[in-house]
Amino acid sequence: MTEQLFQHTLWRKGNQFRVTVLAAEDQTGHNPATAAVYGNPQNDCLVRIHSRCVYGEVFESDDCDCRAQLRTALQMIDAEGAGVVIYLDQEGRGEGLRNKARGYAYSQEHHTDTFTSYRALGLPDDSRSYEAAAELLHRLNLESVRLLTNNPAKVKALQDNDIDVKRETWTVPVSESAQAYLEAKRQFGHMIVTAQAD
Ligand SMILES: Nc1nc2c(ncn2[C@@H]2O[C@H](COP(=O)(O)OP(=O)(O)OP(=O)(O)O)[C@@H](O)[C@H]2O)c(=O)[nH]1
Asked: Contact 133/160 with Cβ under 8 angstroms?
């Protein structure tokens, strides 16, 4: 089925932005890829592709960097006046909340990091896909972007979908309790330079 863009505006901290939802017309029951589009983004604009984390973003858990990254990306793009934040409903690195919660419980019982726990539970390290994000960028006429990420899989996924990517190195200050998570991501190949505690 052909996917369509559904668009409208919202306000954030006094600035208006455009919401762009990429979905099949009759798509209900799960959340499609969504973009917050600031200003009039052109090639080489700042882009953040962010996967859902209910613990960090909604419950304000300090155990991961998800909330800090999302807020920082929104602030940076808002400050530049143009750019895109794409939000993907890919909780728990694509495994969903049930398996994410199982992983957390396993980690707390066995003192393992998140990747070790997933493996012990027979789950893939990361089952996310970024095709919908690439499609959204194409629909926004963006062929090259400055991507806010430390995750090489996101860079490769966009490149594989014919988008030229310059990785925007960033360091988002996070609390002490997120350091173990950052270290696990680093060992898994994320290009995290330093992790600052606030
Ligand atoms: N299983 C599990 N998933 C987590 C944990 N903390 C965060 N996540 C998930 O990890 C993913 C983080 O996604 P993003 O913030 O988009 O990106 P990233 O892969 O960390 O890479 P960056 O672009 O560098 O931030 C989301 O799917 C979260 O739900 C955790 O402790 N355990």
From this structure: no
Would you give the DSSP letter of residue 11? E
Tokens of 2: 């052909």
| Cβ of residue 67 lying under 6 Å from some atom of ligand 1 | no
pTM: 0.94
**DSSP codes of every residue in 143-171:** SEEEEE-S-HHHHHHHHHTT-EEEEE---
Complex confidence, ipTM: 0.98
92 C-alpha to center of ligand 1: Å?
A: 6
User: Which residues are known to be catalytic?
Assistant: 126, 128
Residue 162 falls in which region: left (phi positive, over 0), alpha (psi -120 to 50) or beta = left
pLDDT digits (tens, 9 = 90+) for 41-95: 999 999 999 999 999 999 999 999 999 999 999 999 999 999 999 999 999 999 9
